Amino acid sequence: MRQILPLLILCLMLALPGAPARANPYAEMVRAELLPGWRRPDGVHVAALRLVMAEGWKTYWRAPGDAGIPPLFDWSGSGNLADIQPIWPTPVVFSQNGMRSIGYKRELVLPLAITPRRDGRAVNLEGRIQIGICDDICVPADLSVSAALPVGGRPDPRIAAAMADVPVPGAEAGVRAVDCAVTPTKDGLRLTARVALPRAGQATALVVETADPQIWVSEAKLSHAQGTLTAISELIHVSGGPFALDRSGLRLTVLGTGQAVDIRGCPAP
């Protein structure tokens, strides 16, 4: 738990309301832009946030690991925006000073599925992006992006490639069974997840996410035997108190098997 306190403090500082957006003071490390994309027949607009980092620098996935900084997005300044959902491409696992982080190096194209408030009209997208970028040191970057997303447009091969590079659902990946055992600990809960899938022995990480962002999840300890991957994680509420775990809100992502796997929900054994 002590390892995550500096990152929690940093994230709280980044999330303070009312802080003004600034010009990018880290332009030599990272550049941000919005790719305008295209409007689908169902009315959803597909755009993307593109981050280009200098040689050696990286940024983080939605679940960045103990050594990473979680990204934060604020689209509240946008016009004609009803909803926006990021579609995360498969990340890479990094090792840094004996700790694991998960993210992207050199470039991230993050597709955005955007629902306009009023169909058939342009969306004026205004975003404040707070991310961590790391080389030998880690730096919090506060970036601003904007773009007009007109009706129409055309498919962008960069966005299409990123959308094709997402973890596949468990059923498509050949997951035969999955279950999670939960036991109480002094500080919270211990989650033991078991996933039966092809190439289980090649997995480098199994990332556990919960529906409650106030629950911290430790890096999983992995083992495998007879085609089953077992991952043990500690779960602690940031308040330090007891909490309930919603099994239907659990999300398991298996990385390193040649094909990342996305598993939603985890029943009891």
Explain what this protein looks like in three dimensions.
- The protein is mainly β and 269 residues long.
- It has two domains: 146 residues, Immunoglobulin-like, CATH 2.60.40; 97 residues, Immunoglobulin-like (Sandwich).
- Helices cover 7% and strands 47% of the residues.
- The strands form four sheets. Strands 3, 4, 6, 7, 9 and 10 form a six-stranded antiparallel beta sheet that branches. Strands 12, 13, 15, 16 and 17 form a five-stranded antiparallel beta sheet that branches.
- A hairpin with a 5-residue loop joins strand 18 and strand 19.
- The longest helix has 10 residues.
- The N terminus is likely disordered.
Outline:
With 269 residues, the chain is mainly beta.
* Proportion in helices: under 10%
N/C terminus separation: 28 Å
In one word, what is the shape?
globular
* Distinct helical segment count: 2
| Total beta strands | 19
- CATH topology of the largest domain: the name is Immunoglobulin-like
CATH superfamily of the largest domain: Thiol:disulfide interchange protein DsbD, N-terminal domain
CATH architecture name of the largest domain? Sandwich
Q: Which sequence of SSEs, written as H and E, runs from N to C?
A: HEEEEEEEEEEHEEEEEEEEE
Strand content: over 45%
**Tell me, what is the CATH class of the largest domain?**
Mainly Beta
Structural class: mainly beta
Number of domains: 2
Largest sheet: 6 strands, antiparallel
Uncertain runs: 1-22
Rounded to an integer, what's the Rg over CA atoms? 19 Å
Mean pLDDT: 90
Keywords:
269 residues; mainly beta; Immunoglobulin-like; 6-stranded antiparallel β-sheet; 5-stranded antiparallel β-sheet; 19 strands
